[in-house]
Amino acid sequence: MATQTLVRAGGGNAGQVELDPAVFEAPVREHLFHAEVRRQLARRRAGTHSTKNRAAVSGGGIKPWKQKGTGRARQGTIRAPQWAGGGIVFGPVPRNYEHQLPKKVRRAALRSALSLRQKEGALLVADGLELAEPKTKLAAALLAGLGLDGTQSVLVVTDREDPVLERALHNLRWAMVLRAEGLNTYDVLRHKRLLLTRGAVDALHARLADKASAEGEA
User: What CATH number was assigned to the domain covering residues 2-45+98-215?
Assistant: First the structure.
């Protein structure tokens, strides 16, 4: 297994933590990034766009003028698309953009993203990230002590609910906090740095490592 330095929140080292190579040293497959990010972003689309076709717009119960003898082009209804206020041809209608990917592919994409951050040296594992109060200033100081000063965006991953830390980080535009159970490929890739708690590493091992071995993807 690979090892990672375990850093203390106040500064300094607290030993080493083992990283399962099935999770943090998996092959980096960029085509999986594309597939999974596309799925996640498509799922977020509301799909509520809508236009009216000629059957839905108002007016046009009779012909605007008689068929022949006026010198003008024949018209059957003012609801036709060539009229101002007429119906829209092939316009967008409400739809669901969501599509599915196999769970095996989604897990492989997440392992690839974690492995990419580990390969880049952008991964940190902290011994603890407890705060006494939900204050943004305290959260910024905590991250600064770990070398995260806001020049790069950071994703903080915890193993359990921590309302104090989550509230404290909420107003830092360059930081985001997630629990290990909700960690996803898109958020890992859109943040330049990844900060995991010791418990989050164990949770990710439990979530991804055994399945990787069973699926033969490690």
Answer: 3.40.1370.10
